[in-house]
Amino acid sequence: MNDIARPDFAPASPNEAPLVSVKDLHVRFSTPKGPVHAVRGVSFDLGRERLGIVGESGSGKSQTGRALLRLTAGNGTIEANNMTFDGMDLMQASEKTMQSIRGSRISMIMQDPKYSLNPVMTVGAQIAESCRRHEAISKKDAKQRSLAMLETVRIREPEKVYNLYPHQVSGGMGQRIMIAMMLITNPQVMIADEPTSALDVTVQMQVLALLDDMVRERGMGLVLISHDLHLVSSFCDRVLVMYGGRIMETLDAKRLDQAQHPYTKGLLNCLPRLDGSHDDLPVLKRDPAWLTEGEAIGERSL
Amino acid sequence: MTDSSTVQKAAVDFSPYVKVVKTIGGGIFMLLLTFIGLTAVTFIIGRIMPNDPVVAIVGDRASKEVYEAMYFQLGLDKPIWQQYFIFLGNVLHGDFGNSVMTTRPVLEDIKRFFPATLELATIATIVGIVIGIPAGVLAAVRQGKLIDHIVRIVGLLGHSIPIFWLGMVALLIFYAKLDWVAGPGRIDFFYDGIVEPFTGIIMIDAAIAGEWDVFKNAVSHVILPASMLAIYSLAYISRMTRSFMLDQLNQEYVLTARVKGLNERSVIWHHAFRNVLVQLITIIGLTYASLLEGSVLTETVFAWPGIGQYITNSLFNADMNAVIGGTLVVGLSFVFINMLSDILYRIVDPRAK
Amino acid sequence: MSDTSIKQDSGLVAWLLADFPQNAFQARCQRAYIGWLSFKTNPIAMLGLIIVAFLCLVALFAPWIAGGDGNTQELSNRLQPPSMEHWFGTDELGRDVFARIVWGSRVTLYIIFLVSIIVMPIGLIVGTASGLLGGVFDKILMRITDIFLAFPRLILALAFVAVLGPGLENAVLAIALTTWSPYARLARAETLTLRSSEYIMAAEIMGASRIRILFAHIMPMCLSSTIVRLTLDMAGIILTAAGLGFLGLGAQPPLAEWGAMIATGRDFLLDQWWVPTIPGIAILIVSLGFNLLGDGLRDVLDPRNSGGH
Q1: Is B304 exposed, middle or buried (0-12, 13-18, 19+ CB in 10 A)?
Q2: Residue partners of B253: CB distance under 8 A and separation at least 6
Q3: Which whole number is the average pLDDT over B298-308?
Q4: Strand, helix or coil at A50?
Q5: Chain B hits for C41, Cβ within 8 Å
Q6: I need a labelling partner for A301 at 20 to 30 A (CA). Which of A109, A264, B215, B226 fits?
Q7: Helices (H), ranges, chain B
Q8: 3-state SS record for B268-325
């Protein structure tokens, strides 16, 4: 058991250079049914903090996360005025450089361990592969590291689990394995794309708490992508609210009630409250004007 | 905080051995069932054949006494189900009766003809694997690019071309016109009988005996018919590989592998292809099995003395023992190969129960 | 902006693309139309459709296209090379090869038709009944299906023809008898997923009989996958039929079956190449057409396999 309580890491101080900086990011896909503009001019900075991105499905939140790793699907293109990580220009980086960054300095946790783990490889081999890719260590050492990592993510019998195949572990354990696999290289930035949506409600909190601990302990930057505003605000320092590929509003997680944008307010009103006097849940209102707001400022119009 | 319950469940599950035993058991049961079905169908075919099995043996000029003696000897007076069990018993003893055409026991004939078919089918399957799998993987990785279109078109052509016709055209061009390869048959008359049949596959026998002239001639003979069959296996294997690979490349674990920073080669071969390979086992088994039986036409075109040609020739000569024996042997090897690939699949795939 | 560029269509197209279909008929037409739209963008599938449509047209208008019955012998004019008068030359009996190819398209269509009307009903009935009734019935039927599935197809067809005697119909029957089993498996698998669906329960609650559920509710749902599978198998069926014809076990002379034409033309390959070559090309084109069409249909009806994102 690894129950070391650590002091809270302070949110990024404003004068510290951000780890990740994104300016005017666009992601487009060409599909048989015509082009799709999934991310439309998103800008944000990430320090050693926990940043939440919230939005409905199709709001472009996942694509924003994947664009940071330049892992957009084959039919998509990424454009940005500026996308830097630790002073490196990610837009100009060669594929080889990107490969050395992925997994070692920026990692990502995916939604459902049932699909995101390779079904014909033991979980141990998949974890060990992660560190063997980025560090010149022997097979034996890699195994030791993996076993230690499994223990760190609070799996009790690492030796046993090491040799299991993904279909032999439960969803919660699968997600811990995923976290172990992505943390073993000590990355500086972790992107977690709906890390708990596929899990049972009872284990959701455990996995999130684990993730939270790991991130605090190691002082990483975390991007938590979710559709659940409530969950994101309780785990993050700052929240970006996305709609239709744009950022509607950036909020301090502790000051959600001060939200200005009607969409955020709408989202907040959808949450059931204990002191709720609502007779029924209000319908989320959407305004097409949100999609074109600021279009005149940016030079692009598509 | 630990999922100890799942660990314990997995700990009790010492499944690999049980799994293997169970699948082999199930496979053998299925094999037995299919064997009975196969013998029943061939038996029925033999019985309702329009020609008289007694006449086939004694000839149509035999006296009434001779005819009746043979009639009883064959057990044709007994009820049909008893006849079936006699037939089944004989088959289990490897006794398929004598061939009218060659006057030898059918089993002996099969032993002579079957290696020739095995030779063709084996070469064609190996060619299909060696070329078809990389081609299919490449096409899937470069989906929509030129190489993908080429592999797709070649695959579709291979599936659409009448192989017997292509064999004729190939003989015309490469044997008659260009004289690059040897003609029909397994070996030139000149080299026939030089090496002792040991495996029954002339190339191997010649290599063992060190008769390199014979070996060269045998290779020259086998190239064309094997290529014809290889077109089929190549088309099928590359097509299936491509489609499996496309499916796997869209899986999320491939994205995980990329997130880990693996290069494309590891992502494709180490992650996606491993999953494809598991599925390909069944496909390769199926290809090999269907080449064993599908070589009938190729053997006819190339005068290849294999089991397919043996069966068709016997058919035209109303040599029922030979037809039934041949059909049964091909059918059994077909079933056996499929069962083998099924068992292999279940052992290799950790998810199979 | 991409997603606002919905074209303003009028009349039929608007009716076909309406967001809220008014009745079942419109919904069905819409599905077909949307499928067609995606089918249309696939040039390979369109080529297949064109080839198959062409085959049907040639078969339909055979007497006018061929300009003769294809069996008229003209021994003084035998083995002539292709010319203006005989586009594909003449064969060993002085018959016009072009005319025989045209008439042969009818034979090919006839084979396709016969196999389809035997295989589809057997496969569908065995499969759906087995899936719906379950229990011992299901076990027995599926074992039989497995046994047929394990049989070598061409060899079994050969054996069947040996019993039934050579001939086109017998060859088709033999092919059908060795082809139906995968269809039964397919239909059973679909029935199993349908059986527990709510609309079947609704029909049961409303007192529909087993037979009615089978024929009115389950079989129509299995039809599309069966048709796709049959289209994909059609090339193999055509090739098997041609192969049997080539061995002399299928269509008998003087019927203009392409496989048999190759067999008789085989002796003239060396000096009169057109006699066996042209029927071979005809078989190649038609089976290619069915393969292309089947691939395209599968992409439309089963989006999981279409590849891409």
Answers
A1: buried
A2: A115, A116, A117, A118, A119, B271
A3: 89
A4: strand
A5: none
A6: A264
A7: 4-12, 15-48, 53-58, 64-73, 80-92, 106-141, 146-160, 163-170, 202-209, 212-249, 252-259, 264-265, 273-301, 307-316, 320-348
A8: HHHHHHHHHHHHHHHHHHHHHHHHHHHHHHHHHHCCCCCHHHHHHHHHHCCCHHHHHH
Least trusted range by pLDDT, from B311-320, C55-64, C96-105: B311-320
Respond yes or no on whether the N-terminal peptide bond of residue B50 is cis (omega within 30° of 0): no
3-state secondary structure string across A152-174:
HCCCCCHHHHHCCCHHHCCHHHH
| Helices within A138-228 (DSSP H only) | 139-152, 158-162, 171-183, 201-218
Q: Report d(CA A286, CA A298) in Å as an integer.
A: 22
Is C4 near chain A, with CB under 8 Å? no
Rounded Cα–Cα distance for residues C231 and C301 (Å): 13
Q: What pLDDT is stored for residue B22 in this prediction? A: 67
Q: Burial of A139 by CB count in 10 Å (0-12 exposed, 13-18 middle, 19+ buried)?
A: exposed
pLDDT band at C307 (very low <50, low <70, confident <90, very high): very low
**What distance in Å separates the CA atoms of residue B118 and residue C161, rounded to the nearest whole number?**
25
**Residue A107 pLDDT greater than 80, yes or no:** yes
User: When comparing pLDDT for C87 and A298, which is higher?
Assistant: C87
Give C33→chain B minimum CA distance, Å.
25
pLDDT at A8 over 50: no
Residue B27 has a pLDDT of 66
Q: Does C309 score more than 50 pLDDT?
A: no
The contacts of residue B23 (CB under 8 Å, 6+ apart) are: B342, B343, B346, B347, B352
A113 by DSSP, 3-state: which?
Answer: helix
Whether the predicted pLDDT of B135 surpasses 90: yes
**Secondary structure (DSSP) of B13-29:** --HHHHHHHHHHHHHHH
Residues 220 through 259 of chain C touching chain B, CB cutoff 8 Å: 235-236, 239, 242-243, 246-249, 259
List CB contacts of C252: < 8 A, sequence separation 6 or more.
C166, C167, C168, C260
**Which two tokens mark A232?**
């994101």
Does the CB of B12 have a partner CB in chain A at under 8 Å?
Answer: no
Neighbours of A96 (CB within 10 A): 9
* B263 lies within 8 A of chain A by CB: yes
**CB–CB of A36 and C2 under 8 A?**
yes
Q: DSSP string of C253-271?
A: TTS--HHHHHHHHGGGTTT
C309, A73: Cβ pair inside 8 Å?
yes
Beta carbons of A249 and A264 less than 8 angstroms apart: yes
